[in-house]
Amino acid sequence: MLTDVLVLNFTYEAINVTSFQRAVKMIFSGKAEIVHNRDRVIAATTREMRMPSIIRLLYYIRRPMQRVALTKKNVLLRDDYTCQYCGTHGEKLMTVDHIVPKSRGGPSTWENLACACMQCNNRKNNRTPHEANMALARKPRQPKYIPWIQVKRNTLPDEWGKFLFLYNVSIEERIEA
Ligand SMILES: [Zn+2]
């Protein structure tokens, strides 16, 4: 979203994405400073300020490794709504395929789930990729802590790139390198 704000730790690592309302509160309460502004001006209570895009905490927080929830949506996001069998891209038609089918004992895990278009999912049916002769574009993995997984690539502001890079995760990949 255009109003999302990237939150950096004191050490400049990206730790979260928050709303601009919360970001402004943190700035006014002295907990954070602005690292990058947007052009847009917002009317705050007493003075005008530009909409923050990136803020940095003025204290260090230890953050526990957060796990990315295993949901259908997050699997699709991890795979960027791209069918892992044929490379088709699209948000509406995508399904989550059990690579080793459920009926064959395949678990519902990050490693056994992949984004697949309806056609590929139907074609593969109750077979393994090997049996169906359908290769996966890449090995599915559990994503590391990635706060921006909820943010679609085309909405990520350019200026966020260098801080996300600190994680050694490119915006294009957004999953474990
Ligand atoms: Zn496909």
Structure commentary:
Strands 2-1-4-3 form a four-stranded mixed sheet. It has a two-stranded antiparallel sheet with strand order 5-6. The protein is elongated, with a radius of gyration of 20 Å. It is built from five helices and six strands. The chain is α+β, with helices and mostly antiparallel strands and 177 residues long. The protein has helices at residues 20-28, 72-78, 118-124, 129-132, 161-164; strands at residues 5-8, 14-18, 32-43, 48-57, 94-98, 113-117. Residues 165-177 have low confidence and may be disordered. Helices cover 18% and strands 23% of the residues. It folds into two domains: 5-65 and 146-167, no CATH class; 72-132, DNA Binding (I), subunit A (Orthogonal Bundle). The structure holds zinc ion. The site of zinc ion has 8 residues, from strand 6 and helix 3.
